[in-house]
């Protein structure tokens, strides 16, 4: 079955918020709750994406726009059984492209220094100063 990545809207997310939470349920210390997913942020519903296997979410990238025009990646997650097969890279590439299309100057993010796998992933994709929310150009 193929995975489809498409824009995420609030109604979709609200209807399946428990399934979105379950995407990261295997990760110790994962703290995102329904409240985190459903909070309204500037351009969140314009920039955010979800990866679907039929009607089930298997990954997502939640973004918003800062007042400076920089897109901020709040959370990117892929379901446990689908990690290390390129879906996270596809989501990130599509998110960067979506930010370009929506005139964001760059994308920023933060990663805990203890999250070595995520640090490696984002560095491989051009992000360097991961503790200071600095990112890569989207233009």
Which features would summarize this protein structure in a list?
alpha+beta; globular; 139 residues
Termini, distance in Å? 33 Å
Strand order of the largest sheet: 1-2-3-4-5-6
Q: Which parts are unreliable, with pLDDT below 50 for 5 consecutive residues or more?
A: none
Question: What is the helix content?
Answer: 25-40%
> Helical stretch count?
6
Radius of gyration: 14 Å
Query: What are the secondary-structure elements, in order, as H or E?
Result: EHHHHEEEHEHE
Derived from helix and strand composition plus strand pairing, the structural class reads alpha+beta
Number of DSSP-assigned strands:
6
Largest sheet geometry: 6 strands, mixed
Folded structure, characterized:
The structure is a single chain. The chain is of the alpha+beta class and 139 residues long. It has 6 helices and 6 strands; from the N terminus they run βααααβββαβαβ. It has helices spanning 10-15, 17-23, 34-38, 44-47, 87-101, 116-124, and strands at 3-7, 49-53, 56-65, 71-78, 106-108, 136-137. The longest helix is centred in the C-terminal third of the chain and has 15 residues, at 87-101. The radius of gyration is 14 Å and the shape is globular.
Give the helices and strands, then pairings.
Layout: E1 3-7, H1 10-15, H2 17-23, H3 34-38, H4 44-47, E2 49-53, E3 56-65, E4 71-78, H5 87-101, E5 106-108, H6 116-124, E6 136-137
Parallel strand pairs: 4-5
Antiparallel strand pairs: 1-2, 2-3, 3-4, 5-6
């Amino acid at each position: 079955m193929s995975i489809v990545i498409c824009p995420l809207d609030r109604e979709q997310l609200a209807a399946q918020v428990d399934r979105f939470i379950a995407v990261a349920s295997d990760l110790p210390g994962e703290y995102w709750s329904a409240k985190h997913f459903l909070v309204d942020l500037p351009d969140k519903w314009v920039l955010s994406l979800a990866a679907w296997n039929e009607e089930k979410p298997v990954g997502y990238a939640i973004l918003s726009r800062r007042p400076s025009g920089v897109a901020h990646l709040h959370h990117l997650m892929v379901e446990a059984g689908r990690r290390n097969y390129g879906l996270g890279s596809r989501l990130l590439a599509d998110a960067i492209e979506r930010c370009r299309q929506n005139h964001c100057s760059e994308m920023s993010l933060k990663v805990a220094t203890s999250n070595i796998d995520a640090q490696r992933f984002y560095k491989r994709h051009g992000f360097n100063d991961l503790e200071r929310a600095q990112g890569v150009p989207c233009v």
